[in-house]
Amino acid sequence: MASSLSTAAVSSRIFAASSSSAARLSLLRSPPSLSFSYSLKSLSFSSHFSAPQRRSSVNVWSSGRFSTVSSPRCAASDPSQLKSAREDIKEILKSKFCHPILVRLGWHDAGTYNKNIEAWPQRGGANGSLRFEVELKHAANAGLVNALNLIQPIKDKYSGVTYADLFQLASATAIEEAGGPKIPMKYGRVDVSAPNECPEEGRLPAAGPPSPADHLREVFYRMGLNDKEIVALSGAHTLGRSRPERSGWGKPETKYTKDGPGAPGGQSWTVQWLKFDNSYFKDIKAKRDEDLLVLPTDAVLFEDPSFKVYAEKYAEDQETFFKDYAEAHAKLSNLGAKFGPPEVCL
Q: Of 96, 138, 184, 264, which residue is least crowded by CB atoms under 10 Å?
């Protein structure tokens, strides 16, 4: 569901619309319980969580090459480090204007989830596998190496935070810092430890499938998401731009993107493509500006009878959109995740 989210159209903003490959929605979508792990609101833990974490060395992509770093294994992320990492992410957002691609990073890590596969990590989802080159090279993830290079220094600084948590933390923080709703996030996700644990290519949505509505449902129903959540997550395309060199969609530049901020170029879904609001739905409905991008998976939200109910509502009522979006984003962020330990004493 992104230049911001997807290189597809559901990270379309969800779907994919992130700052790099907005043509595939990647995103975003059955609902693991939110009762395990912890949130950043309540970070007073019992002393047994301060014990050293067992770690394993894994290869991760960093600055265009692989480097070996220590990754926490089978233990929740350190709560104090999560809080500090969030502040560092906010500073990056202020200087790099990278909100869309960080949203897309979290969505594409989570959006590979298959509710029909019980075993972890074969089921995919939010497990940090997107840090491995084999998955970064999937077509839907074009350009996301740039997001990983932004995040890697934070990971190096806070080794007690898993990649799986960091990707989701960055995504939720980017939404909130762009003016979007507070996402009710939980943390404590376990990382996969090797490239052979990455999901196969093809689980993320495409931007221009022959039957957009059927395609969105096929992809997001597989994740356990419903029509309302598909439409809400698509609204994240209010952020970001699609770049034709990455996704095959969009113009090289428009009057809204030629001067940045950040790297100039691409085609945005909205005029203020670093502001999270409901303008994505308003602009698609109005069809008034050829410089604004509308992918087949965007247009279908106002064409399919079931999708249209929610798209019309969100175009008129930003408060309802924010509420539904926050719930869907939180659900997406937990797809396929394994939390360790499964319960935390607060």
A: 264
